[in-house]
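Job type: complex structure
Entries:
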Amino acid sequence: MIEFKNVSFTYPSGAEALKEINVKIKDPDFIAIIGENGAGKTTFIKHLNGILKPTRGEIYINGLNTKKASVAELSRDVGIVFQNPDHQLFCETVEEEIAFGLKNFGFNKDIISERVTWALNLLDLTKYRKVSPFMLSGGERKRVALATILAWDPKILVLDEPTIGQDFNQKDKLRQFIIQLTSQGRTVIMVTHDVEFVADCNPKIIVMSHSRIITTGSAREVLTNFDILSKASVIPPQITQLFSQLSDLDLPQNIIDLYEAKQLIIDLTKRRLDNESL
Amino acid sequence: MKVFEGLKFKRGTTVIHRLDPRTKFLVSCMIFTLALLFTELFSIIILFIAQLPIIFSARIHREWSRSLRGSLTLVVIILFTNLIVGYVSNNFQLTSQLLTYSISMAFRFVVLMSSFSLFFLTTSPDDLSLALEQSHIPYEFCFAFTTAIRFVPVLAIEAQTIMDAQRSRGLELDKGNFLKRIRNYIPILIPLIVGAIRRSLELAEAMESRAFGAKKKRTNLYRLQLKRSDYITFLISFIILSLSLYIRYNIPIPELQFPL
Amino acid sequence: MSIVEIRNLSYSYPGLNKPALTNVDLTIAKGDFIILTGPSGCGKTTLCRCLNGLIPHFYSGDLKGDVIVTGLSVKDNPTSKIAQHVGFVFQNPENQLFALSVEKDIAFGLENLALPRDEIRKRVDRALDIMGITNLRENAPYELSGGQQQRVAIACILSMNPELMILDEPTSFLDPVAARNLFEIIYIFNKELELTIILVEHRLDLLCTYANRVIIMDKGKVKADGIPRDILSSKEVLSLGIGIPKVTRLYNELRASGIHLGDPPISVNEIAQEIRKLILND
């Protein structure tokens, strides 16, 4: 469980990046954090494994105060996958790359080799076991980065902008993968700008703007609240925009999903036909 | 790192800022020469105090004092090296003369640092590069110089991001003995270097795409021109330097001595 | 009149066996606003590099066929010459700004062309003005947000008065609102300055109302080419896995269920109108 108690954070430069953050995330959960560039999203997630410690307030990760624990200790439970895989890949082979974290955490040899095989398999990277990560494409490197973190099976997985630089197919695979992880009882927290991706994933949403959490709620509640979204420089999903434009046709206003939208329109035309035939 | 903070250009519009970089370079060189010329504590203190009005009128005292504080470790090292070497070569005797000498050596370094930071804090790297260009240094070198300065903050941020990413994979930088600790930095250095290479390729592409090398002789948006204030500064510097040389060789300098 | 003529272009990067482009034929008319898209690794960026001479001058490798841009053959003219006609804005704004102030950065290209100082000053001022960044004149690149940096990068290109502007995923590092603002500016250039635009992008939902043509590539080949409306609703494009806007997908889904909504929509407004028509009058 993650608990922020009245957390504020100021960078040494004087920029206040978090202001009075109070939030509780229970296991298992699936959360998306959205908000404008510079809203404090990345600062927020860097607090989850103690890379940054609050200037004021306390953070508890599974009951452990982050001020009293090392980054390594906290990372065992909170795995953060950063936005750019090139900021972490450095080994000669994908296999060694995945083993790196496991070695740091002191797993024994047998477990390491078992976990590496498991992670390679999970992310469909087995054929690249002995390949240099630098030879892979951008999308593949992103998968390797994810595998290096998943290898030690953290209870909470944090993804910073997982969809950046990913094309439609890659995004769709990522979505399926995330859903699979959450269904296995893991907590997944992702930071993203990609509101259509969020609408497809249907997580709970935390909206940040100007260093504060301005709202939390289900995807359906938040993505259909145009006031909140515009405060956070987020453009509502197209489907939601459409239903808002059609509000006079007696259609519900809390729609984010394509297939739900399709069904509602089909129903509406049927009703229309029924009325006509009457 | 603090030392570098104290050398980062701070935008300003004071008289000092508006001086030609070449003028400021000359002034810094003069202070440098004077600091080498005089070894007595008394004259070095004067040299230090003489810089203060310039620093305050450029409104850079805060950054300047930060750079001095940053160089404190080096100052202490210089002080003790002098003391120890002197102590050993002096048949293991600590005299007040030796103490005074060591202190003045350390203080001399402060004066040098101070003149450096005065120059870098008030001279925009763009102007500096322009000064280099106008001194007929090939444009490629000047370009490399500004680009290096431009990317220092970018690389610093990148190094931090990489460090965050590797620590999130359980890397503990300050664990183990000396050798192990150095090895701990490999996972940070490799992505940083690979990133820098990738970045330099992208930079080269972007330069090509903006007609780099289209003409043999390029022009420049700005041209440095010496103003009256520059000539006055030259004159003052020249007078001070001649006076100092005269004093150095003709007038005894009062001895300050630290009692033991 | 065509500004780009590509005939039977094939290219492989040095040391790689797999060709990055195979038998590409393409003509681009002056004034076009083109979206170039396709899955990762499809050859979009490679094609763009061919258009300003980065290929074959900066990247060697094996180039076959002809590329004529603004009347110049890229094989026979150095990048620095083509750069005077073709502007290139890259994905990462950070790596295309070299100077320590915005003004110096914009001047960089003009200085390379050895223009007289007065002319440089005039063009810098104009570019700052068009991009609405006159207030940032003295700022260093690291003092700017990603959106501002990308505006500066575009100003740098604009000041060189290009006829064709290529933008390679310029909004990857921007939030959606900043991205939309950037697209709007580019659209204005296209209309008012009659600048031909080639924009490489994944975010079609924010973009396709501006373009008059979409080119979709896959595995080094042009797979589809036409007006956005037709291309985005065609079956073969769906199978390529392009990020089709949700409203277009909704149209396709409804069509599959027997509900026909007139022309395929590319914006929320269009589909809203069609649905309204369907429900209210017939």
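Summary: Residues 245-282 of chain C form one domain. Strands of chain C lie at 2-12, 21-29, 33-37, 62-69, 72-73, 86-89, 164-168, 196-200, 213-218, 221-226.
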